Each structure stands twice: as C-alpha cells, then as structure tokens.
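Working notes for the structural subgroup meeting. M.R. asked for a predicted model of this chain before we commit to crystallization trials. I am recording the input and output together here so anyone reviewing the notebook later can reproduce the run.

Input as submitted:
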Amino acid sequence: MNKPELSKAGNNQQNVYELGIIVKIIQSIISTLDYEKILQIISDGMSELLGIESAAIYLLDNPEELLLSATTPPLGTDMPLYLRKAFLKDHPHIEEAVSERKPVFLPNTQTAKLSDAERKITEMRNLRSLLYLPFVQENTVLGILILGTCKESRKFSPKEIEFGQTLANQLSIAIQNSRFHTDLTNYKNNLEKIVAERTSELEAANEELKTINDELNERNNLVIKQKKEIEISLEALKAMQVKLIQSEKMASLGVLTAGIAHEINNPLNFMMGAYQGLNEFFKTNAPEHQQYVSVLLDGLKSGIERASAIVIGLNQFSRDNKTYNENCHINAIIDNCLVMLHHQFKNKIHIDKNYDKNNFTIKGNVGKLHQLFTNILLNSVQAIENHGNIQISTLRNADMVNITISDNGCGIEAANLPKVMDPFFTTKEPTKGTGLGLAIAYNIIKDHKGQIDINSIINKGTTVSINLPIFNKI
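Returned structure, recorded in token form:
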C-alpha cells in the first residue's frame, strides 16, 4: 500500500510544481509590458516546465524568413541582427511545424535526417532531442518555440506534447498583445516627439512675434490655442491608452487562465477523489495504519486545496464581465487577491485582517474589483523591503463601504502624492513598475462611483482608504 500512496503524493507534488511554474509565467507576463522580456519569460518558463536545457523562440518576420528573438540560456546582447535571421526553406522541420500548425518531435538528432543548417545548429549546441511547438492563434502562426535536450535524448509523451502545444497557443496571445503594445508605445513616443517639436517651433515663433504687429499677434493666439488642443488630445490619448492596456491584458489573461483552469481542475478532482477514497479505506479496512498515513493524506489534501484556491483566484481576477451589477463580496474578493499574491509576501509580511462581521455585498464588477485590490495590495507588498505588516479593514456605513489598507513600508514623498494616480508616473525602477497600477485602480473606483484617499509618511508607511457605494447606480 505504501508505494501507491507515495506515487500519488509525488504526482500531487509534480502537479503543484507545474502549476507554480505556470502561475509564475502568468505573473511575470502581467508584471511587464516589454515585448522582448515577455518572449524571454516564455522561453525560460516553458524550458523549466518541461525540464529542458535549451530553448529558442523564432518569430515569422515574413512568410519566408525567421527572426531568433529569445533563447534559454538568454541571447548575448552583442549578437548582431544578421546572425539572428534564418530562412524557412533551410529548416524543413520548422517549415513542417509552421505549415501543418502542429508539433514536430525529433527523438534523436544523430539518427534524424537534418538539413545542413539544422545539423550545424544541433552540433554547435550539442542538441539530442528536439520538440518544435508553433505559436498558433486563430489558425495563424506567429512563430515557433524549439525545446531541446543536450548531451542525451529524451522521450516526450503525447500528453506532454499536447499540453506544451496548448500552452504555446495560449501564450501566443501574450506575444501578439505585447507586439500591439510595442507599436502603441512607438506611436505614443512619436506623438510626444511631434508635440515637443511643435512646442519648440511655437516658442521660437513667440520670440519673433514680439517684434511684429497686431496681425501677427492674432496669429500667435491661434497657434497657442492649437497647442492647447494638442496637449488636451495627448492627455485624452494617455487615458485611453491606460484603459486599452488594461482591457487587452485582462482579455489575454482571461483566455489563458480559462484554458489552464480547465486543464488543471480535472486532475485536481481526480486527486481529491483519490484522497477521499484512501481516507475512507484506512478508516474502514486498516484503522491501525491510519495514524501513520494521516500526515501524508493531510498533506495531499492541503496541496489540492491550495492549488484549487489559486485556480479560483485566477478565474476571478481575469473575469471579463462588462456590467457593474454583479453581487460583489468585498471580503471574499480581498481574500482571493491575497491568495494570488501569497508568494510575494509569505515568510516576510504579516497580514492583519479586520473585516466587518456582516457578510455584506455591493453592486459592481467582480473582475475589476479583483484588479483594484490586487494593484493596491501589490503596492503595499513592494513598499516593504524586509519584514513588515499590512492591515486590512472593511466597514459598512449606511449606503457606503469603507476599505482601508495600511502598510509600514517606505512611504511616498509628499511632493509625489498628488501625482501617484497619473498614468505612467512611477518612482520604482524601470524593471519593477509601469506607472499604471494606481491609474487603473483610480479608473475602476471612478467607474464604481467611489472615492480614494491616500496618506503617506516617508519611512513610516502608507494608508489607502477606499469608499464604494453599496448600490452602484451606473
């Protein structure tokens, strides 16, 4: 009896381990808008998930040409562009995966029939087994992920190949959206450059206009009016960009998590059934052994419940309901957000919860409220460098509910407090923040007809107070 039990416990640990890697990939993608970083996250994450030493992502630059965009281990920063390019016709196995839109597996490169270009790469990197996974979205191939073992060959089960292809297809959404964001960022930078150039021209014109007559002064007034219109348009573009980024990221995350949740829930149900069967078996047929296996069974149950809670939290976070008339359990939503962020604060931050004892609900949007509290809590977690405390309280007062989140982190300078909810304003390092978290939170609160107030003292901490109406008349 002991071997099957240990095997099931091992399978449970493997599933939880794989789930952890998938969650890490998702959270890493959420944390950045950088296109190259997202490709590197996918390459490293898929390599870790399938236990592969080498990985590479080629994107289709055009119907005949490929561009090497990420590798595991990562590419050298000094690698010239011409060395990254490859022609599809020189790599028949990549061409097969792209044309068939299906995985291609080479068990042993030493016995497989390879082209000269393929043989050169396998010998240079000492590759033995290769798995080609095309990134397919709506029957369109964006590129291909190549996973390879070094020194010795490895077999992949059909289930592993199918799972890898499914995940690659889901991750293609993140690639496409990241491309879209890069284009949007380039457009924004170009627009800012145009505005800056136009402003510089206007300043020069103003100096000249001081020396000419009233007619030129009237033209100058017209130019100033046009400049203001451009600035107003730029502010409106920033606000629209924040909502567009939020919408696109949550849409892609929703598709990804829905697929993952479906794949993971079935084995979790099997494991829970096995746990219940084993527990009942020992109670009925071998009670004298129950005390020896209870620790293993409790660990199995705890792992299953933990994985289920993470899946539930992901589903709630990525809901894409457009209405604001859902029943929203504020306390439960905050708890879901804490489950999602648990890996960020475990073993270093104590969470003190003081919830209103009445199990109240408000009318609003469940998915957006998950985004709101995740952004606020993540800011508190990141404000604490070593060890600290976060206090969370909820209180209903007549037709309003007050939610207060306080931390004893690094705090915010008084001069920066008025700007913390401006789009793209951030005091964090470039790799640790985009300046959109509080801007998105502010828009969600505004959409729920609520208010937010932030108080902070440097090296003392920050308190965020949110008031939301119980009945949202939107």
